From TrEMBL:
The lineage of its organism: Bacteria, Pseudomonadati, Pseudomonadota, Alphaproteobacteria, Hyphomicrobiales. Its main location: cytoplasm. This is Serine--tRNA ligase. GO terms for cellular component: cytoplasm. Keywords: Aminoacyl-tRNA synthetase, ATP-binding, Cytoplasm, Ligase, Nucleotide-binding, Protein biosynthesis. GO terms for biological process: selenocysteine biosynthetic process; seryl-tRNA aminoacylation. It comes from Rhizobium terricola. InterPro entries: aa-tRNA-synt_IIb, aa-tRNA-synth_II, aa-tRNA-synth_II/BPL/LPL, Ser-tRNA-ligase_type_1, Ser-tRNA-synth_1_N, SerRS_1_N_sf, SerRS_core, tRNA-bd_arm. Catalyzes the attachment of serine to tRNA(Ser). Is also able to aminoacylate tRNA(Sec) with serine, to form the misacylated tRNA L-seryl-tRNA(Sec), which will be further converted into selenocysteinyl-tRNA(Sec). Its EC number is 6.1.1.11. It comes from the Bacteria. Residues 173-410 form the Aminoacyl-transfer RNA synthetases class-II family profile domain. Belongs to the class-II aminoacyl-tRNA synthetase family. Type-1 seryl-tRNA synthetase subfamily. Homodimer. The tRNA molecule binds across the dimer. Pathway: Aminoacyl-tRNA biosynthesis; selenocysteinyl-tRNA(Sec) biosynthesis; L-seryl-tRNA(Sec) from L-serine and tRNA(Sec): step 1/1.
Length: 427
């Protein structure tokens, strides 16, 4: 969420930033609403001050036996008693309206983010590794998985409907191995603290990281009003919600391996085959809570941690700087890692690493106290996939496929596979 004080002082900057994101200008309407709210607040304060003064004046008038003045003052107080509740309700409504409008405004892109409309305007930052050089044609993951006998979409549909997958045997083990490998790498080598957190959260948590109110249709909700997390970013970031941290203890770095749940409301008809776009999938999440000065460097560090996963797996990928029109709602700058899928003959996103500034910190009211002990500042937050396990499984299957349809297990995963070095067709 953006600060209305900043908007009042930087109206042109806000509208220019929104234009970069392809959004309409909002500064004038927001400032007008805020001025109306502030006018009501000032009126309430004036009435409160006058009511308090009149109460004291009544005593003085009674002491002087000026009953006419005392009655006049009592009538004045009675008038305030009648009109103030209405003004208080108006102030509550205006504050709620302003808060709602502010909560729907996307974050301000950093100056070095390329300006563009969509994914076609993203910029390649670096390319890592080589595409596999085979003589045999590449198959897609679902053809490989079904032929091996360990990937079943029909049974998944029987259980849950479309966009679900059942994995069995060595493919289920390979998926588990990928998640465990990522978690071990980030905790033992990259300095992240492993967290086991809830998969269902309250409204406040979704609001804190920016999923609510704007993206409710992308989420799943339980009958008792909780939300299934679309990513562990929600729980890991909200661990510090409402807290005041000490600057010298920052950054805090958290990681979690959890299922994620998404309705995919805006992706009807896209990637309907296979398990590329699912309602439920595993993801290893990375979250950093930092001070303002460290956030940009932490973004580069987090991206390198996610890249290391793909490097260890021997996968070819490229790191993209997203343009203003393709960035997420809460991001100030995002790097996407796009892994090469030979079966599709294209790159697909497998991780997004974003720096959010104090956008989420303000929504969560999460602050830190400076080293001088004077005052508090909203924390800066970052999040990234380290990486999406299901898409990593797809990438391993397609990049390590053999001509006979078997899949060689990458060296990095061998310690987790119980002696399985190659996944072959079920007997």
């Amino acid at each position: 969420m953006l600060d209305i004080k900043w908007i009042r002082d930087n109206a042109e900057a806000l509208d220019a930033a929104l234009a970069k994101r392809g959004a309409e200008p909002l500064a004038a309407s927001l400032i007008a609403l805020d001025e109306k709210r502030r006018s009501v607040v000032q009126s309430l304060q004036d009435m409160q001050a006058r009511r308090n003064a009149a109460s004291k004046e009544i005593g003085a008038a009674m002491g002087k036996k000026d009953m006419e003045l005392a009655e006049k003052l009592k009538a004045e107080i009675a008038h305030f008693k009648d009109v103030m509740p209405g003004a208080e309700e108006e102030e509550r409504q205006l504050t709620a309206e302003l808060t709602d409008q502010l909560s729907r405004i996307p974050n301000i892109p950093l100056e070095d983010v390329p300006v563009g409309k969509d994914e076609h305007d993203n910029v390649v930052k670096r390319v890592i590794g080589q595409k596999p050089g085979w003589n045999h044609p590449a198959k897609e993951h679902y053809d490989l998985g079904e032929a091996l006998g360990y990937m079943d979409f029909e049974r998944a549909a029987k259980l849950s409907g479309a966009r679900f997958t059942v994995l069995t045997g060595p493919l289920a083990k390979l998926e588990r191995a990928l998640g465990q490998f990522m978690l071990d790498l980030h905790t033992t080598e990259h300095g992240y603290t492993e967290v086991s957190s809830p998969l269902m959260v309250r409204d406040e948590a979704m609001y804190g990281t920016g999923q609510l109110p704007k993206f409710a249709e992308d989420l799943f909700r339980t009958t008792d009003g909780r939300w299934l997390i679309p990513t562990a970013e929600v729980t890991l970031t909200n661990l510090v919600s409402g807290e005041i941290l000490e600057q010298e203890k920052l950054p805090l770095r958290f990681t979690a391996l959890t299922p994620s749940f998404r309705s995919e409301a805006g992706s009807a008809g896209r990637d309907t085959r296979g398990m590329l776009r699912q309602h439920q999938f595993w993801k290893c999440e990375l979250v950093s809570i930092t001070d303002a000065e460290s956030a940009i460097d932490e973004h580069e560090r987090m991206t390198a941690c996610a890249e290391e996963v793909l490097k260890r797996l021997g996968l070819h990928f490229r790191t993209m700087t997203l343009c203003t029109g393709d960035m997420g709602f809460g991001s100030r700058k995002t790097y996407d890692l796009e892994v090469w899928l030979p079966g599709q003959n294209t790159y697909r996103e497998i991780s997004s690493c974003s720096v959010c500034g104090d956008f989420q910190g303000r929504r969560m009211n999460a602050r830190y106290r400076g080293k001088d002990g004077k005052g508090t500042t909203f924390v800066h937050t970052l999040n990234g996939s380290g990486t999406a396990v299901g898409r990593a499984l797809i990438a391993v299957m397609e990049n390590y496929q053999n001509e006979d349809g078997s899949i060689t297990v990458p060296d990095a995963l061998l310690p987790y596979m119980g002696g399985i070095t190659k996944i072959e067709k079920a007997a």
